[in-house]
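Case study 2.
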Amino acid sequence: MYGTMAIKTDRKQKLAVGILGATGMVGQRFISLLENHPWFRVAAVAASKNSAGKSYADAVKGRWTHETPIPSHVKDLIVRSVDDVAVIKSQVDFVFSSVDMGKDEIRALEELYASNDIPVVSNNSAHRWTEDVPMIMPEINPHHLAMIPIQQKNRGWKKGFIAVKPNCSIQSFIPAIEALRQFEPRQVAVTTLQAISGAGKTFKTMPEIIDNVIPYIVGEEEKSEKEPMKIWAQIENGAFKLATTPVISANCIRVPVTDGHMATINVSFAKNPTRADIIAAFRNFKSPLEGLGLPSAPEKFLTYFEEENRPQTKLDRDIGRGMGISIGRLRADPVLSWKFVALSHNTIRGAAGGAILVAELLAAKGYL
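Prediction:
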């Protein structure tokens, strides 16, 4: 991902990274994306006890999901059990968490690492609603990192902490709504058309999706409606005060594509903008990450297409190396105000890549 990029960085030594849940689909994506990363190096891989003790290559034999081979510096790493905290602590500066366990188990595991002075950047949902844990979409709420010292004080942690990224289902439509916040969005009706990789599946492992659409994804609609309220929250008296607008109504549907979550978005505004106003807001969106030199940040966060048939999942999911958001089909809505379509890559921006960008922001701000 980074081999052909000229990245400016004054870092003399890369931070050592551990990946919890390294053998799963998201864990594999972490390993793929971190190859040649200019700031981070994979130093430890951990998974369930069934994989512990094997080389990484043996642990994922027959299950590696990427077209590119396993990075050479990772394939011979010995997989540790995720609860082998003492050994992993001796090898890493922080960890990414993408374990496949029950929520209570994940919460306990991530807190165990943090209490042992290991920062945790989590792709999991277990701590998204923990009161003192920031849920970060870096281009939207980087200021929520201010909750980390509060979290550490609350828990008596010195170096460790937990930061999470939001659900993949909101990654396409929340950036687009954020660009329009100046017009005070009030109601949002959104339908997400979600790829099978969001369920950790391929066409081989999910044959029921072929020639089919499944109009239900467990928990996704609630996450799509509620998580934005924490992303747009204010920090008051050391706690999050959740946003109350816009009100979001979501439908989440599984569709037969490999990668890429598309969203159809209908929105009303208190200050109704013109078509030109909206397109200008998309195109002129200024990312708060500009100037930080974060390696995974796309050069252009939002791209608006004038073509009537764009964005398309197959053509546009990899925009900005999979970290950009594509938008198109803006038109008047006879029920609300305006409607349009947006697209994001669910396993890059929506999962591992988004978590890596959070870690880069943490490093740039001195938390790692």
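The first strand starts at residue 15 and ends at 20.
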